[in-house]
Design goal:
Helix content is about 20%, strand content about 15%. The protein has about 110 residues and is an alpha+beta fold. Strands 3-2-5 form a 3-stranded antiparallel sheet, covered by helices on one side. Strands 1-4 form a two-stranded antiparallel ribbon. The N and C termini lie far apart (about 25 Å).
């Protein structure tokens, strides 16, 4: 099992989760983070760090977010690791409570 970043992260990209990851499993895209399922050790320390509650255990990903399991795997192969906290995106506060943001994902 692995952990998965879901839609709530899009256009926010808070990186509080990155500093606590003991294996550097996070990958950074333009406006979203992904977790590399091959690196994740299922420790769950990232979950409470996410201010928008975007991270779930794979088995707990909501039904309407199931596509993010494969998306994290795909994007983690393309994107570079992120190992330190950075500033969130400038518009993060505006986007944090917006639903249906899939079309906003930049690859």
């Amino acid at each position: 099992m692995t952990f998965v970043v879901t839609e709530a992260c899009i256009r926010c990209k808070y990186t509080d989760c990155v500093d606590v990851c003991p294996v550097d499993a996070f990958r950074e895209g333009p406006n979203f983070l992904a977790i590399d399922p091959n690196e994740c050790i299922d420790c769950a320390v990232c979950v409470p760090e996410c201010p928008v509650e975007a991270i779930y255990a794979e088995e707990d990903v909501p039904g309407d977010q199931q596509d993010f399991i494969a998306l994290n795997a795909e994007l983690s192969r393309e994107w570079k690791p992120i190992t330190r906290t950075k500033e969130s995106l400038p518009e993060a506060e505006e986007w944090r409570s917006v639903a249906d943001k899939r079309s906003e994902l930049q690859r």
